[in-house]
């Protein structure tokens, strides 16, 4: 009896060991690393089966980019880690290329684009006289005076789905509006929406606009200095309260006034 009991206990023990081993094997087969996660500058960009194939595809991509861009070479850091993944989640070659290009910190300079900007620049320079060139250069550094004291009630940019082309400065009715810079009054009168409006041409393509005034204190073609009183704050035109709508344009293109004042 005692012998049989001992034998049964041994068999039980062996069965338990076998089941554990089988479970381990199943678990290993199910979850063993079968692919690589590739990170570029610490962003995951792809899951691939084979590292060698991935490295070869980077070299191909580099060659291809070399044709489009000048002396292109990735300076990005690639790291790999083994993972388990279902093969349907592997990243396609096209997506890998897209992700690499999107995540690359390598500076690329398209040859074609560079050429066109150079052509544009040279024609522009020919068009401008030497004096104008100096003015255009100065425009980039000009500090404008804030035309009025008060709170910025609305800044430059998209507003309710529409572009707000200037900066609104709210102040009491009748507060002084100053010229933001030396220049010549290019317009003084009424414009639909803007109400009573003053425009000053500062040369070099730079122009400032002051809208919704209650009164205008300058005339067209009048020379003004930076800080001169040109008008008073009002609410004429399309306006919901007394403020000056201040615009800065360079060659007619609205700029963010905050960058100039
Ligand atoms: Zn405005």
Describe the protein's architecture and organization.
The protein is of the alpha+beta class. The chain has two domains: 100 residues, no CATH class; 109 residues, Distorted Sandwich (Glucose Permease (Domain IIA)), CATH 2.70.70.10. The chain contains five helices and 16 strands. The strands form four sheets. Strands 4, 7, 9, 10, 11, 13, 15 and 16 form an eight-stranded antiparallel β-sheet that branches. Strands 2-1-3 form a three-stranded antiparallel β-sheet. It has a three-stranded antiparallel β-sheet with strand order 8-14-12, with no helix packed on it. The site of zinc ion has 5 residues, from loops. Zinc ion (ZN) binds next to loops. This is M23 family metallopeptidase.
Write a short abstract of this structure.
The chain has about 260 residues and is α+β, with helices and mostly antiparallel strands.
């Amino acid at each position: 009896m005692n012998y049989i009991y001992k034998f049964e206990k041994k068999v039980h023990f062996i069965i338990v060991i076998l089941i554990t081993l089988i479970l381990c094997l199943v678990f290993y087969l199910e979850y063993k690393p079968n692919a690589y996660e590739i990170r570029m500058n610490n962003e995951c960009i792809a899951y691939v089966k084979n590292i060698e194939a991935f490295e070869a595809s980077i070299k191909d991509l580099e060659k291809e980019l070399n044709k489009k861009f000048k002396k292109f070479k990735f300076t990005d850091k690639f790291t790999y880690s083994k993972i388990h993944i279902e093969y349907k989640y592997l990243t396609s070659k096209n997506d890998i290329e897209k992700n690499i290009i999107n995540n690359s910190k390598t500076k690329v300079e398209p040859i074609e684009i560079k050429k066109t900007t150079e052509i544009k620049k040279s024609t522009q320079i020919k068009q401008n006289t030497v004096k104008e060139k100096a003015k255009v250069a100065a425009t980039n550094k000009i500090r404008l005076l804030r035309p009025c004291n008060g709170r910025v009630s609305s800044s430059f940019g998209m507003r309710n789905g529409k572009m707000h082309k200037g900066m609104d400065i709210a102040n009491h009715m009748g507060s002084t509006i100053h010229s933001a810079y030396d220049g010549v009054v290019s317009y003084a009168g009424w414009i639909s929406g803007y109400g009573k409006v003053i425009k000053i041409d500062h040369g070099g393509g730079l122009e400032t606009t002051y809208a919704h005034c209650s009164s205008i204190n300058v005339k067209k073609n009048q020379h003004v200095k930076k800080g001169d009183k040109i008008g008073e704050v009002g609410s004429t035109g399309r306006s919901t309260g007394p403020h000056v709508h201040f615009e800065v344009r360079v060659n007619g293109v609205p700029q963010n006034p905050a960058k100039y004042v």
